[in-house]
Structures are given as structure tokens and as C-alpha cells.
Amino acid sequence: MTGTSDGAGTHDFGVRGSRLVYEGAILALRVDEVVMPGGRTAEREVVEHFGAVAVVARDAQGRIAMVRQYRHPIGHRLLELPAGLLDQGGAETAVDAARRELAEETDLAADRWRVLVDLDLSPGFTDEALRLYLAEGLHTLTAAERTDEEADMSIEWIATDEAVRKVFAGDIVNATSVAGILAVAAADRGEVTLRPVEAPWRDEPSAFRARRERGAHQ
Fold first, then answer.
1. What is the tens place of the pLDDT at every residue in 177-186?
2. Which residues are catalytic?
3. Which CATH topology does 51-202 take?
4. Is the pTM of this model over 0.85?
């Protein structure tokens, strides 16, 4: 495949070849040969990822349910929104995954769900994307069994205004959580209209999920 360059922003960055370098439990690394403007090609490393969902679960008092969880790559616990991977196969929708993760991490369910924001987390090298939901009308479920890092996880309820302060104080640094907290604060000011859960998600990752499904059938 070759691309044409008729002006800024019109080039078709076609892929002439691709090779798999690594495949693990939650991601794969491939190298694509991409056609650049002018016709030359350049290699681009791409991390394929399941993608994920996260939830701003807020009670009637305006408090957000957050979890404090150990994150091994940085070596300490972070205060985060409940979140998890889209790793259960094609039958589970993104909002169903959000419901599952909220129950597994906080023992909560919600009656009302809306889309807050969609995030492409680091598009310079990965297709990893995440959809953030606002969940309200909360009620408590039977406590879930938790293992590994989640067995050490604690749940904290933080008022929305206090969560915003913690973002700017550097106490909440998880990118997903920062985006969710600031998004719900903006929504509270009436500046935006939140989308329904059925709203299209253009960049929902599919490459790694399809790769895993192909492997399972071989």
C-alpha cells in the first residue's frame, strides 16, 4: 500500500508490513512498516492492549469511591478510581466491564450510568484506550473475594471538591483518575452534556483481543 500527500493532514499512512515481537498476558508488541509522506517508510513500534474502563462512582453525598492499590512498576500504592481491563471477550460490553470492575473492587452497583470521557492513554506508542463512566444511584453488594494486589486494596470515600484538590496537590496522579475527577467536576458546573452508555467509542482497542481470540482457535 502506498499513500499520497496532497497537503498537510491528507497523507494516508499505510502499512506495508508488520511483525510480532512479543505477546504476553495483557499486551503484545508489533513493529509496523509505515508509509510516510514522500513515499519512504519508517518502522513504528506499537503496543497492543486490551483497553480498559474506569468508574467515577459517586454517592448521594457527592463522595467518590476510590481505591488505594499497590502498583508494582512504580513501587508504591496509588489512590485511584476503580478500573479494569476489557479482557473477558467480545460478549462483554464496555459498560458491562465497568459494572463488573465496580463490583469486584468496591462491592458496589449503580442504577444510573453515563459516559464521562474517552481517553487514548499514550497514542505515540500504544493503542491502549479507556472509557470513563459516571455511576450514580449506588447500592452495596456482598463482599467480593480479592487476590494478589487487590487483596491488599483499601476503599476510600472522597468528596468531589477534595478529590480535585488532591489532583492539584499531586496526591492523585493516576492519569485515568485525574481525567475522571476533573471531568465530573466540569460536568457538575453544567458546562457539558454527558453521553449515554451506548455512545460510539471510536478508538476502543480491538487488535490484541482479536489476536488472542485467533490464538485460542488455532
1. 999 999 999 9
2. 150
3. Nucleoside Triphosphate Pyrophosphohydrolase (3.90.79)
4. yes
